[in-house]
Write a structure and sequence with these properties.
Strand order of the largest sheet: 1-4-2-3
Number of helices: 5
Largest sheet: 4 strands, parallel
Shape: globular
Radius of gyration: 14 Å
Oligomer: single chain
Distance between the termini: 17 Å
Helix content: 40-55%
Order of helices and strands: EEHEHHHEH
Number of strands: 4
């Protein structure tokens, strides 16, 4: 896991952006992202709902996000990420300021399944 604003590390392997929106202020060359996995990110509506009150809404957000991840398209995208990880180093990159209070822990838990 890394922030997209940090310089890529030699050990990153395949860099996959796991944000719904492209990060502000960074170009595609600078980000050095190999794939953009939008299908494993929270919907725009859910993301906005969480951002209104992240501290209080995190538990309910996790439940709703898991429900979104149960969809066919999302399950296919998760399977693809697992395949990439099985083939070599993968680094998920994000622009979120506080990964602990975002979709990242939920996504990582799903990928570990």
């Amino acid at each position: 896991m890394a922030r997209v604003y940090e310089p890529p590390a030699a050990a990153d392997g395949t860099r996959i952006l796991v944000d719904r929106l492209w990060p502000r202020g960074i170009g595609k060359q600078q980000a050095r992202v190999d794939e953009w996995a939008r299908d494993v990110t929270p919907s725009t509506e859910l993301r906005r709902w969480l951002h209104a009150d992240p501290a209080r809404r995190q538990p309910e957000f996790e439940r709703r996000y898991l429900a979104e991840l149960a969809g066919d398209r999302q399950q296919q995208a998760l399977a693809h990420l697992r395949e990439l990880a099985a083939a070599g180093a993968v680094t998920l990159v994000t622009s979120v300021k506080d990964p602990a209070h975002s979709h990242i822990p939920v996504l990582l838990a799903q990928l570990d399944r």
